[in-house]
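Feature request, filed as a ticket because there's no other form

It would be nice if the structure record came with a short human-readable summary line next to the tokens. Right now we just get the raw output. Example of a typical job, pasted below so the devs can see what we mean:
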Amino acid sequence: MADYGWDAERERSFGPSRDEGLVPGRAVRAERGLCDVVAETGPVRAMVLPSSGTGDRLTPCTGDWVSVRPAGPATSATVVEVLERRTAVVRSTSSRTSHAQVLASNVDTVAVAVSLADPLKLGRIERTLALAWESGATPVIVLTKADRSTDPASAASEVAEAAPGVEVLVTSATTGEGLDILTAVLSGTVVLLGPSGAGKSTLGNRLLGEDLLATGEVRGSDGKGRHTTAWRELVPLPHGGVLLDTPGLRGVGLHDADDGLEHTFAEITELARDCRFADCAHTTEPGCAVLAAVEDGRLTQRRLDSYHRLQRENTYAAARTDARLRAELERPMKQISRQVRALKQSPHFKA
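Raw output as currently delivered:
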């Protein structure tokens, strides 16, 4: 249990549940209705009861600590409760709903994998970093496939400018470059995030010291990888801690990521303190310190545009669950619609 992160604090809080005959365990793989759990007595295949409407707390995901009722003579082992999550990597679902998807829980380090074999997509890196910072874990950017880059140092410098406060490591699973430093940096429960083809599973196998994670070739037609990891699963690392490999993320939607965006765009947050207006939107306002920084070259326009884009997305995601905020966002569109209708009804209107 200690190898998977169980500690004295969790033991103290779990104490009363032992009196009820329950045992703690960690979900190393979660499927619909079933959960593979590492418990004190060994691995357990436990049933997950349908949610009773209290939401995600009763739906375990990989990385969750859970309380388990052991199997009896005529009953299967059952997950009774999902214990409090210290951290959680959460993204918005691709559907137009207010639902969120927990990708991993109780994570200490989020390793954002970025392939140097492909053109850098700084906007996607910033989006993933916002997700990582919001989780409560520590993000690290891992630039993979350095052996296939003509200038990895320059690429690392470019990424570092888009990731203030985040360590950026250049690695190659082929040559072994940077793996010693990466091993020293990673701690606790480590989750690998990134698109298919970023080299997450190959990198994970190097960290594990053996080929436990499935890998696949990248398509030559579009440079994209195939989903070789079909599910999220915890695997112990030889140097301590556990690794959580994830399927490639085609989409990274933000969900209630205000703090994550503040960390990701830390320099904009800092500049905004000197704006004339406390509610400055950094668009056309006079006395805007952020716009002044763009004008004198301290901040790039690309960086500010990315900030605005992700802020808008995060606001609209929040509006899906906040009726008042949704009404405020819809009010300008309704006013425009009324004006258009009034114009069309005017006797002077010509189609």
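Something like this underneath would help us a lot:
The chain is about 30% helix and 20% strand.
Residues 88-245 form a domain with the Rossmann fold fold (CATH 3.40.50.300).
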